[in-house]
Amino acid sequence: MISSKLPKVGTTIFTVMSQLAAEHGAVNLGQGFPDFDVPQALMHALEQAVRNGFNQYAPMAGIPALRQAIARKTERAYGYMPDADRDITVTSGATEAIFNAVHAVVRAGDEVIVLDPAYDSYEPAIELAGGVAVHVPLTAETFAPDWQRIRDAVTPRTRMLVINTPNNPSGAIFTHDDMLALASLINDTGIWLLSDEVYEHMVYDGARHESVLRHASLRERAFVVSSFGKTYHCTGWKLGYCIAPPSLSAEFRKVHQYNVFCSFAPAQHAFAHILDAQPEHHEQLGAFYQAKRDGFREQLLTTSLFPLPVPGGYFQLVDYSAVSQLDDVEFCRWLTIEKGVTAIPLSPFYAQPPAGQRLARLCFAKNQETLDAAIERLNAL
Hints:
Blueprint: H1 13-24, E1 27-28, H2 40-51, H3 64-78, E2 88-91, H4 93-105, E3 111-116, H5 122-128, E4 132-137, H6 147-153, E5 158-164, H7 176-186, E6 192-196, H8 216-219, E7 222-227, H9 228-231, E8 240-243, H10 246-259, H11 265-277, H12 280-283, H13 285-300, E9 306-307, E10 315-319, H14 328-339, E11 341-342, E12 344-345, E13 359-363, H15 368-378
Parallel strand pairs: 1-11, 3-4, 3-5, 5-6, 6-7
Antiparallel strand pairs: 2-8, 7-8, 9-10, 10-13, 12-13
């Protein structure tokens, strides 16, 4: 019998629930992907890149035009111009970038602090690197970081701290004060930072995305991960990037070149064009999704589900305690099979879920027709 390197890992909850949705004809608000088209200009740019013959291997770090466009976009967004040649690496989605960053610096026996609820790819990457994930819960009511608990989790073996803002699944965001606390925690230490910022352009109500890239002392110790798939509604293209200082990027690229070597070439050319030609897309993305968030929240208030605040991202947490006292996994199965709407339970995002938590995650990155169909079924609860 094979001894598994990931004995705790099975099929992800996202795959399980999407399969269940398909089997029962449910409206799938579980898995986090849009059901509307990518921007027309981006589709045309991709088609043109294919027709222009950009169909072979791209340079390992990404085509120069795209890395230069990313550098300009970063300066416009965060007031910091990374070096396009030394600091930016294009990856096959943010998940690959997260894997590369962990494997670039984490050695056997190293500890990596993960803040729960956390996206499920972090811990497997840590374990495959021989590291140990040390889970620290975010504050249960607000999902804000508890800096004293995080500080208490640091040991001489702590090699990395992973943050995710806006957070998946909660939508919580780090504030400026959080960034100051983070800097105070890791400056003058041997701790590296992995900042998962794939929902960076989905921040609402006049708030500012506090990217690590805004803070000089933090970006000197950080891998900052972004996602074209999330920003441009094309998760299936699997294209993202990582910004890190030269010493970290050099180690990151060593993993990248023997992981995938390079990423989808035609899409790289398409994004190199669109970032400069239509910056208004990512600049207006927050307003686009805030309208969806607000409308979906108003609809949910007609149901027996209570929507929690959503500062960022495109997920809506709902408290279902007025409907059921089932645990969240069983509730989401019941909701899919009996009521025809698929949600994602929150407990798989935790090492130790809070006792009695009755929360589920719904994705509002959907056409209005999809959301309307879900609400019609949820009104029957």
